[in-house]
Amino acid sequence: MKKLTIVVPAFNEEEMLPISMNKLLEIEDRLIKDELITSDSDVMVVNDGSKDKTWEVITKLHKENSRIKGIKFSRNFGHQNALIAGLDIAIKETDMIVTIDADLQDDPEAIIEMVKKANEGTDIVYAVRNNRDTDSWFKKNTAGAFYKFLNLLGVKLVDNHADFRLMTKRAVETLLSYKERNLFLRGLVPLLGYKTDKIYYKRGTREAGETKYPLKKMLSFAWEGLTSFSIAPVRLISIFGILASLVGVFMLIYTVITKLMGDTSQGWSSLMISIWMLGGLQMLSLGVIGEYIGKITLEVKNRPRYIIEEILK
After folding, report:
1. In this structure, are 201 and 242 located in the same domain?
2. Is 195 exposed, middle or buried (CB count within 10 Å of its CB: 0-12, 13-18, 19+)?
3. Could you tell me if residue 184 is left (phi over 0), alpha (psi between -120 and 50 degrees) or otherwise beta?
4. Which terminus of the chain has fewer Cβ atoms in its 10 Å neighbourhood, N or C?
5. Structure confidence by residue, pLDDT tens digits, 20-74
């Protein structure tokens, strides 16, 4: 039998954690009873710089049940870094890891099937949503477009899969060998190879607390995924540049013909439109290029992904 650790990133989840810990431990108990995992299997919660009493709740739960472990960041480092920290610490003493968000909107019952597949020799098991009934119309359609767009640009994502997955020890150790600071785990994990499988589940609703992924954060996350795995935006700028040059040639011919015809008073509107369009295109291009330069700057500084203030083992 193998030891299982469930890694749970948490940001301002004081209301939800008691509920989620009870559920996750109950699932582990069933797996232990069925002799699918070892009796020392545990849950590790990563407190990502929460402003509420999340760490106090984790500490209390740890005292009540030593199978609940805790990692406290010195400040907020983000969801992806919280996952990496949990993987980095847990893999030293476990055989396989499941990552799941604290809100348990991803059905924790799916963990049972994931463990069974891992015991059969699968290294990575993706949990994939089979519906988006709980999403708004906007989120449902933008999420679908996001997956299709990134796949079109060459970023190989698993459709309708977030960060709910199981990974074996060797898969996690390989993932941790990727040292970039601009993390987008949904794109990194499929690069590992190894034997993979999928299970499907129905996404539920949050029982307590509020969502930690408003529209602004979702858009930021999507942009992070795009710029971390594709240079398509930079290539797109080159295409715009070529098109702008062709338009410039056309405008040059148009200007010469107008001059020869003696009708030089025309063209003011087209000139102003061209200036504004080209100016906007240049600003957009500089912004995209600046984004990539900023990411390069962060990478070469080689700063730590996270800083741990305290660990409960």
Report:
1. no
2. middle
3. beta
4. C
5. 999 999 999 999 999 999 999 999 999 998 998 999 999 999 999 999 999 999 9
Residues 6 or more apart whose CB falls under 8 angstroms from that of 307 comprise 73, 74, 75, 77
Range of the domain at 291: 232-301
Please state the φ and ψ torsions of residue 99, each to the nearest 5 degrees: -110, 135
Q: Answer yes or no: do 204 and 264 share one domain.
A: no
DSSP state letters, 75-95: S---HHHHHHHHHHHHTTS-S
Which pTM value belongs to this model?
0.70
Please indicate, yes or no, if residue 224 is contained in any of the structural domains.
no
What is the C-alpha to C-alpha distance for residues 46 and 212, in angstroms, rounded to an integer?
15
Residue 80, pLDDT above cutoff 70: yes
CA gap 287, 281 in Å, rounded: 10
